[in-house]
């Protein structure tokens, strides 16, 4: 099976997303697409999968003209896409999400759904993938990584000949990623052609056979895996060399203002067990740990999204017990969630709407539109958000620019504490450097930051202080003057 896309161009308004880009996906090979956020990677995959139509260019599938008008037509032809953003419906169970548009296939002659057959078919796919959960579990109790596994299972349920994976590893832990790579290798042996997008070049090096580099919507080149160094690939992506130290210089920590937040014996049923934590003014406190070990629960309790059963919190030396996220935002605590599209943004709203959502300028009871535009333009500039204008709908932006909008929404109210859940997930190296500089500047300006990350190098490189969670407890708290290695951190995680 071979899919050839030739001279594909696609524009959204005045913004050119793809300009005469060509790509070949071949039987039994993994073709990786790399490039900065906004380079056109997702757009190209969406064209191939029928999610959008190109403005010009042509495609062939196994030598025959191929022009799917929607994703269903592409799936029937053997081309399946796993989107970068989460597409799970939490109102349905796991098996229903896997077979979301084919539930009628499991209806018997009497019109009664055969739930047993549905769950069995879905479980077979999950087992073949090496998933660490079953279809009988509550989908709302799965983490984002497990939701992504469900989406990949949905794509595999079509028995595709061409499988397109757009940032499918962004939410996965190492075990889930290894399981996915095992599935990919098995699919290669079965003759399936695979397209793969990731911003982690070590993943590209591990799984890809060939690499296509895009920049600003244009084709840069095709290369055999291993032909270029990581540094060379990054230079092609961003148009300049990227140094090895991508983290901003830290400053000597001075605890002259004391702590701004203190947590004592915090307990959340089934998630946290007697957590003690202090956050100082102007510091970046990094949280590391395996998924489900307690890091997200700490952020959830602070923002008021998860009720705690025992313990107490002091904010600026006063009792603090948020009943809902509004209570936290109201006193100057902002939160960037791990799921930017499901929780952080309203995709159908404009960039301006989302940036101003948490701090809407008003004149009396009326919206101050000029002030909204000034605020939006300010954060578009600060965060280097690539959008045609502030009135551009967010659903037309790349994943990296969506993340910048979500971060800008958190910055706009000028919070005293900023909580960040994997702030650079699905972000290319150039955009990560920009976000690191923003985070460090916020801390230098006195904002206290807690950031949770699954990237150990990021945890070490950006944090002033690090805590590690394991099984709902803090297994290790490193001091400001300590600079742990990856091995030391891992030892306290597992």
Question: What key phrases describe this protein's structure?
Answer:
single chain; 494 residues; alpha/beta; Rossmann fold; 2 domains; six-stranded mixed sheet; 17 helices; 33% helix; 26% strand; globular
Walkthrough of the structure:
The protein is of the alpha/beta class. It has two domains: 2-238, 3-Layer(aba) Sandwich (Rossmann fold), CATH 3.40.50; 259-493, 3-Layer(aba) Sandwich (Rossmann fold), CATH 3.40.50. 33% of the residues lie in helices and 26% in strands. The two termini are 43 Å apart. The model has no long low-confidence stretch (mean pLDDT 89).
Portion of residues within helices: 25-40%
Q: Might you state the CATH topology name of the largest domain?
A: Rossmann fold
Helix-and-strand structural type? alpha/beta
Q: Give the overall silhouette.
A: globular
Q: Tell me about the largest β-sheet.
A: 6 strands, mixed
Flag low-confidence runs.
none
Q: Going across the major beta sheet, what is the strand order?
A: 6-7-8-3-9-10
Distance between the termini: 43 Å
Number of structurally distinct domains: 2
- The total count of helices amounts to 17
Record field, number of beta strands:
22
Gyration radius, rounded: 23 Å
Compute the average pLDDT: 89
What would CATH call the architecture of the largest domain? 3-Layer(aba) Sandwich
Percent in strands: 25-35%
- CATH H level of the largest domain: which superfamily? P-loop containing nucleotide triphosphate hydrolases
Classified by CATH, the class of the largest domain is Alpha Beta
